[in-house]
Please model this.
Amino acid sequence: MENTDMKQIQWFPGHMAKTRRLIAANLKLVDAVVEIVDARTPLSSRNPEMDSMTKGKPRMILLNKCDLADDKATQKWINYFRSTGAEAMAVDCKSGKGVKNLLSNVKNTVLKELMEKRQRSGMTGASVRLMIVGIPNVGKSSLINRLAGGKRAKVEDRPGVTRTKQWVKLDNSAELLDMPGVLWPKFEDQSAAVRLAFTGAISDDILDIETLAMKLLSFLSENYPDSLVQRYKVELSDEDTGLDLLEKVGRKRGMMISGGEINTERAAITVLDEFRSGKLGRITLELPPQKEQ
Ligand code: G4P
Model:
């Protein structure tokens, strides 16, 4: 993906430094870190400093929104994260799929030693403490609501608005530390920013909507051509540019403006909306880095 036409994104580095300090200060209070990422963009939706920030702590990476991602790719990502020393699993916090296994998985994998130690010293009643982290919109509130049951009010993290950390007691066996503050995704990498704009994780005004949709269509025609053919009943050719694809979609959907021109803006909004809501099928936007041979 080229990096032209990108508007500068404002990332509030000062705010981020404060969050980083809070995480560092609270790590000693928890037994493990649960990091939520988007299964469609497992690397782009991570905070780039998360590995170094949580170094030494047992970590479970949750590939959330797995209902929208390609199952085969999700499995590759699980294997990849395991190869880096973390544990990983897929969940869908919208329907709740996989969530009920989270605590037992954490206890049986990354906290296995701690659990065995507690068993030996007769402390089996002590609860495990987990810090929940992730970039905005990745599904932290949905996860906590799923685990805690009932609907907790969503607390927005905004620059200038302070909220304190919150412990959420699940039952006698676990407590979650819901961290305040914003963790930004990978911002130094513009193609990561484009992927995040595709999923709607960051505002789509980093690019004009038609450019964004054209980039998405080019990616899909290369990686998921059947999804495009099935959804829009278009014929694809290797020579198609992003604009050709957008026009094909607009034409098929009858999105015309006077004079017989295609309303590419409407087509772009449709493509992005349908991609984000899963109507184009289950799609993953990036694969794990290949191991060096
Ligand atoms: P956050 O606390 O990390 O900021 O994220 P939050 O839980 O608010 O989730 C952000 C959006 O992602 C919500 O949609 C939520 O429903 C959706 N979401 C969370 N987990 C999943 C999942 O596993 N699958 C799918 N498909 N969506 C998920 P929203 O449009 O902002 O709100 P609403 O649709 O819930 O009203």
